[in-house]
Amino acid sequence: MPPTHMAKYSRPRDRLGPTYSRKRAITACQVCRFRKTKCDNARPTCGFCRKTGVQCIFEAPETDHMTFDSASLAILDRLSELSSQITQVGRLVTNPSSPRSQKSYSPEASDIIGFVADELSGEKILDWPIFGRSHSITPVIDSLLVTDNCSSVNDQYTGDIPTTELWSLVDQFLLNVHIKNPILDIQSLHGAAATVIRDGFGFDPDSCLLLYVCALGAVSTAYVYPHVNLGRNSLEAGYNNIKNSMRYFSAASNRLSIVPKFSLLEIQCYVLSGIYHMFTMHPLLAWRQFNIASVSCQIYFKSESRETLADEVSRGLEQRLFWTVLKSECEIRTYIPAPSSGIVGFEYPSMFPCPPSVHDTESTQNSTDAYVPLRSSVEAAVERKSWYYYLTEIALRKIENSVINVLYRDANESWATMPFPVLVEIITEFETQLGMCHRGLVDEISFDLDTLHKHDELIFHLQERFWEIYKLLYRPVLYCAIRSAVEVNYPEHVSFIGTALTKLFHYSSQTCGPPYYRHHGTWFVLRSIFSNSLIVLAGLKVGKLAYDNAVRENFMNALRELRYWQDEVPDLKEIVSLLEGLWTEVRMGLGAGGLLL
Description:
Elements: H1 30-35, H2 47-52, H3 70-94, H4 122-126, H5 140-149, H6 166-178, H7 186-199, H8 205-219, H9 234-255, H10 264-279, H11 283-302, H12 312-333, H13 361-366, H14 375-378, H15 380-407, H16 414-417, H17 420-439, H18 457-483, H19 486-489, H20 494-509, H21 522-542, H22 549-565, H23 571-589
Helix pairs in contact: 3-15, 3-17, 6-7, 6-8, 8-9, 8-10, 10-11, 10-12, 11-12, 15-17, 15-18, 17-18, 18-20, 18-21, 20-21, 21-22, 21-23, 22-23
């Protein structure tokens, strides 16, 4: 049973009420709709698609929407509307007839999902004049080159791999990993697991994929709040899980060479390998795996053999893999100045991946005689909520990429040379897009933006994503406030400046999350804590943030979180030492005494 084809399964037609009815008939192909150009509707391939050689896909008749539930279609329409609005900011700053059009911060509309790294890092905040340019740390890329070359995740494990804990590891993977990146077909995964239970792990492609699943199931932990510190540091607490996972990961890596090249299965394996490296705090190794997956993905989409995989499940799978690969590469390159695979510029006709129908528990159970899946792994509400999260994540990724293109294309100093009213207008436009996205959240994942939510994992991660983008928006305002008296020079924007700085400090001061929880994005959270701490210190130094017990306690919490992971992420020791010194320096400057703790 090749996982690349993903076995079809029955799709109930009346699971969640009436089908979603669109307001108008859609006649253009997906590519022309995405480009917002007139389509000649020639079948089977329109004129533009025939000329450019891309796959031409026409929307199926409305009766085919029965395979999706109404809520899924509704959120797709909302997100598509949001994506069509994101380019407005690009038009705002590229209008040639407007004095606001300046080369240094004018992205092309096609760059909407492009981005640059480096200027977003905490190291760049440390270069701000407020810190006197007397502090520096080892560039993150240098630290990663040393630690990842010494990584133990490539240790070789020999001998047979037991199958006694296979079902529990598969279920842990589905609940802890797949729920955020649904790149596998659950029913096919269960079928492959049943085969391994019967025959044992073989030296074959299906076993390779399943071993990566087991590795992630073993290293991941369930999200529980409040979290309990199970050890003095992350390595001590996670030792057994990491050690257990490494034998599966090593066995999977040994089989990776036999997986068909440039296939959906190969892309799946490389993505899962990259996610595993993120769990074990090796982002540079993860980037390499995501980069290979990105290249394979692009070649796959250009191959004629792809046309043989015309079934609905495979088409949905390739959409999800494309967006997961793109999103993963963007996330890492936001913090590491690594080269791009080029996937951000790849023209793909689907603006968002289409959700599959929620698996029917009864039909899934009947697919194998050996296993009755845990209810939690196939529960309709869980899978539906997972999809809302996944689609919203993609929408936020697009917005963040556009923010980076507009505001972080050049050095931070460029903010001071940009006309401040232009900066205000750009930020306001992005605020509008973020507001649309937040208001469009369905009930299952909706939340109050300014109240920290920790009890629900998916909502907690979404809130973090919103906050990260808002912090990127408001960081230039703080920089300008430090460099010049913007409140005096632009009295009409005093209210805007005050609100922006209040939100920036509020989002930067909040505890970033349960400090003892290992997940795909933990390394990103640690980099964010570093940037947040520098923002708070800059606000205190310039007098834009008042020192009080809450600020002190939040800063101390941030240091505790960094210390917890510093034995596993070596450059954190240098970061903690730097922040401790800056904190003491700031408090002495405020007359609060020299004691840090």
